[in-house]
Specification:
Blueprint (H helix, E strand, L loop, with lengths): L8 H5 L15 H4 L3 H12 L2 H9 L8 H7 L23 E8 L3 E8 L2 E8 L8 H11 L13 H14 L2 H10 L23 E5 L3 E3 H8 L5 H13 L3 E3 L7 E4 L4 E3 L5 E3 L5 H13 L2 H11 L5 H13 L13 H14 L7 H16 L9 H22 L2 H39 L5 H31 L5 H23 L1
Antiparallel strand pairs: 1-2, 2-3, 3-4, 5-7, 6-9, 7-8
């Protein structure tokens, strides 16, 4: 971290804090005409080190800063200064060649290189787990808190600094990233996102190695082919990762992504990933679909649940109140999809409540905000989030059905469905018997021709029963080839046969 002569001097230089009346102005004249968001970015950039990471963390945080700040902070880049090249790691000597530094993260330096199996990406992590000493962290917090009375005061909150440190440590966790990549090697369903192959036998415990993917940078494809070929693909990939694969991109930088030759979404370098807890899968899916559909009440209900509120109903009412009091942001020369605007507003409303959302939820909002701001120049004619959601929902449904049929729960489901079917058939038979007995009594009592109403009732009941049997027959017929091995195909076949017999009997009764 760079050291300035006085902690407050940097903020005064860019006019971010008021100067005492007895001191001459420290703000340089050349910065005076710049908008405040630009000056904030320049100050963080000049401070360097952890301040630049902080600026990247705030990029996309529309719950803390207005959109002009977010747009400026997205341009912050860390200088490519190598401190741990592969040649400095004894275990890598002789195994890696042509190493070129392409990226620096809070915990690692990322290189393109040639390895024993061909082109690869090599991430070299620092020996210590924390990417900066405790003393540097204390100094950083002290300097940031000097902005408590400025327009940037939301970023000085203790909870924001705590979450920033968690974000930093997350990216510096080599084993966590290795575990994520290992779990994503064999996805049981074809997705738009493709993950690189992990090179697991690499000799150094400080390194993460995976195959280099070949493709065109996402930004180049979007610039050449418009929103449909770039930003919509990225939107689909981000949604798919969250609601189907249960991971969230912790960095959300479009330069990390490639468009592959087969039209899939790959990675130039793999970003840090955060997991979506299993208990929140349903709520996150409902939250996104409700936001896209414009169902604000349902969306806020899911948001309050995921924020682990002790009083979800009270939190939902508070969110509605905060949402109604928000001032709409004015965006010049930009077109943001309505779904992203809605999600940003929900997030801004949530930030005005005492609830502390989980990290994955903050990162999910941040991803979609960065997506919206990255695609503003393309001015898409449609809502990219809405368009991308439906194919993701289709793959999610396909995966869930396949998951049910491949587990023991699938056997229980088929057995219970068979019992339900037999119960329904029995109930239909009893109903038919009752109708028949009533009709017979009428015939015996009156000794007249059958009543037209009675005939219609009998035909209606038989027709309904036949329709139910037909639906069950077709359902179990579809399950037979998808049931996998074991007893499941036999159970599905037996249930289909019973449905066919019931259908035959009911059709004959209609006649």
């Amino acid at each position: 971290m760079r050291n300035s002569p006085h902690p407050i001097a940097l903020w005064e230089k860019y006019g971010l804090v008021p100067r005492p009346f007895f001191k001459p102005s420290a703000a340089e004249a050349r910065f005076a005409s710049l908008p405040r968001p630009n000056r904030f970015r320049l100050a963080l950039e000049e401070a360097g080190g952890v301040f630049v990471w902080f600026g990247q963390f705030l990029a996309g945080r529309t719950d803390l800063l207005a959109s002009p700040y977010v747009s400026q902070l997205r341009s912050l880049r860390v200088p490519l200064n190598a401190t741990s090249p592969p040649s400095s790691v004894p275990e890598l000597r002789g195994r890696v060649s042509h190493a070129q530094l392409i990226r620096v993260t809070p915990g690692a330096e990322v290189y393109e290189a040639s390895g024993p199996a061909g082109p690869m990406i090599l991430e070299i992590y620092a020996p210590q787990r924390i990417p900066f000493p405790e003393r540097a962290w204390t100094d950083f917090c002290r300097r940031i808190r000097m902005l408590e009375d400025s327009a940037e005061s939301p970023v000085t909150q203790p909870v924001v600094l705590e979450r920033f440190r968690e974000w930093i440590e997350w990216q510096a966790d080599l084993e966590r990233k290795r575990a994520f990549l290992r779990n994503l090697q064999d996805i049981p369903i074809r997705c738009v996102s493709r993950f690189p192959r992990l090179i697991s036998d690499f000799p150094s415990g400080r390194c993460l190695a995976y195959d280099q993917m070949e493709g065109t940078p996402l930004a180049e494809v979007s610039a050449a082919g418009g929103a449909a070929s770039g930003w919509e693909l990225w939107a689909e990939g981000l949604l798919e990762q969250a609601v189907l694969l249960s991971v969230v991109d912790a960095e959300a930088q479009p330069e990390n992504y490639l468009v592959l030759r087969d039209g899939g979404l790959g990675f130039r370098t793999l970003p840090a990933l955060a997991s979506v807890p299993v208990e929140w899968h349903y709520e996150l899916l409902q939250y996104v679909t409700s936001a896209v559909a414009g169902n604000t009440s349902r969306a806020l209900q899911m948001l309050s649940r995921m924020s682990a509120s002790e009083n979800p109903y009270g939190t939902e009412q508070l969110l509605l109140e905060k949402l109604s009091s928000l001032q709409p942001e004015l965006r010049i020369n930009g077109v943001t999809p309505e779904s992203i605007v809605a999600l940003e507003n929900y997030w801004r409303a949530q930030a005005r409540t005492p609830q502390k959302p989980p990290l994955f939820l903050e990162l999910f909002h941040r991803n979609l905000t960065v997506l919206g701001q990255s695609g503003e120049s393309a001015a898409p004619s449609s809502d990219v989030v809405s368009d991308a959601l439906w194919p993701v929902l289709g793959r999610t449904l396909q995966f869930r059905v396949g998951e049910i049929l491949s587990t023991e729960k699938g056997q229980e489901w088929i057995v219970s469905s068979g019992l339900l079917m037999m119960t329904s058939i029995r109930q239909a038979a009893l109903t038919l018997e009752q109708v028949r007995d009533k009709d017979l009594a009428l015939v015996l009592d009156r000794q007249e021709a059958e009543s037209p109403d009675a005939g219609r009732n009998r035909h209606a009941v038989s027709l309904i029963g036949a329709a139910i049997a037909l639906v069950l027959f077709l359902l179990f017929l579809q399950l037979i080839p998808r049931a996998g091995g074991g007893a499941l195909p036999w159970l599905a076949g037996a249930a289909a046969a019973l449905s066919a017999v019931a259908l035959y009997i009911l059709v004959r009764r209609i006649k």
